[in-house]
Design goal:
With 274 residues, the chain is an alpha/beta fold. It has nine helices and nine strands.
Length: 274
């Protein structure tokens, strides 16, 4: 597609969302950079330099439909806003935590997408980008809430792609691996599961595995560049990576049966406290 019209990016105050707002403006889109608190946008237009005039900041909370004001000439919707919660085993994860994460990561995304479809159709087509996670391709313990929310978005996107193809609206699912963002930095901690009897060894293993990614991160600006390439590429597949780790995991998922990948992962995990 041509870089024209407006691209709306949620969660654009920091991390990958901010990098995408900057990159899409650089490519030639008018960008509506949205976030819960517009104070997070401080310095955004200045960072964009000559492209700063293409960026407009607007408050948008995906859990509050009354904040969902859609622009004219919408051509790209980037569903990037998302949250995590404590890293707990399923038996200790409260229902309130599940509801909170799903309100943002699933229900809010669905509602904004539902409202955007008529605008994309009126513009003659466009692209919907759903940011999920490469963690969907690995059974990481204590990530059940986050992974389940992203899996729901994945299934939603597959059906959406089939429904919207006749209208010239493409759907992209981006599965980021370790991108250099505040969220990634915040995940570098011992899981809260470590304080629970029976889960201590597995929590230590999970923390060590997380720390092992420290040398394999990708700058947010580079990840945004790869996503923008896919947005503009009419032949891009439904499911893409924006970093080398994500690409390797997608390739492994294509090459190995799910049962084999699960067995390999479980074989590396401790089964009980030493």
């Amino acid at each position: 597609m041509k870089a024209e019209g407006t691209a709306l990016v949620t969660g654009a105050g920091r991390g990958l969302g901010r990098a995408l707002a900057l990159e899409l403006a650089r490519r030639g889109f008018d960008v509506l950079a949205t976030m819960r608190d517009v104070r997070a946008a401080a310095g955004l237009t200045e960072e964009a330099g000559a492209d700063g005039s293409r960026i407009q900041v607007q408050p948008l909370d995906v859990t509050r439909p009354e904040t969902m004001a859609l622009p004219e000439r919408l051509r790209v919707l980037v569903n990037n806003a998302g949250i995590e919660t404590e890293y707990l085993p399923v038996e200790h994860a409260a229902q309130e935590a599940w509801r909170s994460v799903f309100e943002t990561n699933v229900f809010g995304l669905i509602e904004l997408t539902r409202r955007a479809i008529p605008a994309l159709r009126a513009a003659g087509g466009g692209v919907i980008v759903n940011v999920t996670s490469a963690s969907l391709l690995f059974p990481m313990p204590f990530y059940s809430i986050y992974r389940a929310s992203k899996a729901a978005v994945q299934a939603f996107g597959e059906t959406l792609a089939a429904e919207l193809r006749p209208f010239g609206i493409r759907v992209l699912e981006v599965l980021p691996g370790p991108i250099e963002t505040d969220m990634l930095a915040g995940s570098d901690r011992e899981p809260e599961a470590a304080r629970l009897a029976g889960y201590e060894a597995l929590a230590r293993w999970a923390h060590a595995a997380r720390q092992g990614m420290s040398g394999s991160t990708t700058p947010a600006a580079e990840a945004a560049r790869r996503i923008a390439d896919a947005i503009l590429d009419e032949t891009a597949p439904l499911r893409i990576a924006c970093d080398d780790v994500g690409r390797a995991l997608i390739g492994g998922a294509d090459a190995a049966p799910f049962e084999a990948r699960i067995a390999g992962a479980l074989g590396a995990m401790p089964c009980e406290e030493a």
